[in-house]
């Protein structure tokens, strides 16, 4: 069975069809009935700007300006729709491709690139945006999010009835992360503690090259039943449906109703990261099928059909996107190269003798190149080529060694 054949989408919450027609839903349609044309254009603007940022970052990586990049191409509706459902006091825990959510939380998208440039371990102040730094360890942040939600309970910030005070947590992860122990442990803790957390799975159907069909025999949302957690599957390419189901789940969490597992059924239109080649494991026909379900095209079609996408708005948005792209390029290229000694910083919270010894050795090693005679260095003969190796350096004698005798 091909990946596109295993769609299993008959039970998805959908409020906007792929051709842009509004649908009714007894539970979720009323939650977005208040969104007027201006609000819909705002969601459309968010998705367009995030995609422009995403494409610029991909180009910068291809040009050697970024070490790596993880696209969110095709997942803008799930991210923007859910992100716009958050209250200011709510806290979000992302994985590493939630650029749309970062945008909705007021993070300067240029700051997202600092980590991928290698000049910062994060790029923004999490407490300034209630948006945690990206997590590259698959699934680990779901436990952090659940623990934070449990802390909100203990601080009396849940179920008070004060809309400006009650808070919730949302955490984002992919379908592949659901195969990790951390995510399942987070579901256990969230359930038994009735934690105010929304576990938002963006099922983009590929855990790098592994399809969802190799990870589960039931819809991911259905796993919530086994943990006693309410769950819902939503069309993740429908920004209105994504917004509605997240509004409902967050309100349940804030009021003391506990966790919700959301499965946003979407598609990763790009590569897993820029080091990946998706043509090796999925077909062009599958990719073309999902391009026809593009979340931005869907909302655009609705706005055009309602005569709510005037030419002047589109022109202003195009100019704004172009300006964003230019600013992203200029910002990244002005960052420079971080000193290699940065690798030794923030490894441990307190001084560590092994790390300090390795730092000292590395500084001597780099200094030996700076002291070289340029002509001999260019010829490939370094005057310090016989320097003491790490395995014999007295400062490194207490460091653990690999089988090859090098410090680990």
UniProtKB/TrEMBL annotation:
InterPro entries: Alpha-ketoacid_DH_E1_comp (IPR050771), DH_E1 (IPR001017), PdhA/BkdA (IPR017596), THDP-binding (IPR029061). This is Pyruvate dehydrogenase (Acetyl-transferring) E1 component subunit alpha. Keywords: Oxidoreductase, Pyruvate, Thiamine pyrophosphate. Residues 45-321 form the Dehydrogenase E1 component domain. NCBIfam families: PDH_E1_alph_x. Gene3D superfamilies: 3.40.50.970. GO terms for biological process: branched-chain amino acid catabolic process. Transmembrane segments: none annotated. The lineage of its organism: Bacteria, Bacillati, Actinomycetota, Actinomycetes, Micrococcales. Its cofactor is thiamine diphosphate. Residues 373-408 are annotated as: Disordered. The keyword Oxidoreductase applies. SUPFAM superfamilies: Thiamin diphosphate-binding fold (THDP-binding). It comes from Cellulomonas fimi. Residues 373-390 have a biased composition (Low complexity). GO terms for molecular function: magnesium ion binding; oxidoreductase activity, acting on the aldehyde or oxo group of donors, disulfide as acceptor. The keyword Iron does not apply.
């Amino acid at each position: 069975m091909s990946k596109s054949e295993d769609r299993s989408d008959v039970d998805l919450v959908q409020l906007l069809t792929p051709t842009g027609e509004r649908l009714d839903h007894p539970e979720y349609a009323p939650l977005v009935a208040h969104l007027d044309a201006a609000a819909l254009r705002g969601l459309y603007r968010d998705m367009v700007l995030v995609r422009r940022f995403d494409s610029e970052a991909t180009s910068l990586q291809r040009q050697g300006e970024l070490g790596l990049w993880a696209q969110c191409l095709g997942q803008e509706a799930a991210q923007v729709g859910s992100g716009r459902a958050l209250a200011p006091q709510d806290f979000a825990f992302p994985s590493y491709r939630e650029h749309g959510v970062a945008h909705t939380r007021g993070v300067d998208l240029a700051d997202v690139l600092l980590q991928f440039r290698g000049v910062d371990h994060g790029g923004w102040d999490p407490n300034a945006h209630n948006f945690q730094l990206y997590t590259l360890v698959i699934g680990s942040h779901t436990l952090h999010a659940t623990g934070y939600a449990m802390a909100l309970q203990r601080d009396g910030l849940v179920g008070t009835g004060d809309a400006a005070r009650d808070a919730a947590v949302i955490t984002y992860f992919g379908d592949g992360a659901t195969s990790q122990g951390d995510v399942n442990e987070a579901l256990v803790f969230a359930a038994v503690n009735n934690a105010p957390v929304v576990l938002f799975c963006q099922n983009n159907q590929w855990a790098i090259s592994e399809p969802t069909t190799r990870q589960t025999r039931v819809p991911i949302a259905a796993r919530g039943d086994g943990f006693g957690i309410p769950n819902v599957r939503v069309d993740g390419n429908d920004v209105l449906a994504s917004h509605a189901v997240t509004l409902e789940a967050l309100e349940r969490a804030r009021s003391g109703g506990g966790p919700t597992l959301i499965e946003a059924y979407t598609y990763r239109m790009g590569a897993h990261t820029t080091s990946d080649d998706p043509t090796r494991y999925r077909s062009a026909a599958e990719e073309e099928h999902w391009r026809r379900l593009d979340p931005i095209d869907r909302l655009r079609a609705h706005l055009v059909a309602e005569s709510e996408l005037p030419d002047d708005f589109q022109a202003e948005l195009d100019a704004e996107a172009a300006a964003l792209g230019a600013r992203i390029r200029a910002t990244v290229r002005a960052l420079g190269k971080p000193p290699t000694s940065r690798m030794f910083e923030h490894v441990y919270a307190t001084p560590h003798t092994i790390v300090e010894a390795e730092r000292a050795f590395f500084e001597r090693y780099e200094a030996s190149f700076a002291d070289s005679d340029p002509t001999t260095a260019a010829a490939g003969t370094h005057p310090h080529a016989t320097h003491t190796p790490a395995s014999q350096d007295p400062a490194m004698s207490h460091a653990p060694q690999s089988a090859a005798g090098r410090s680990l």
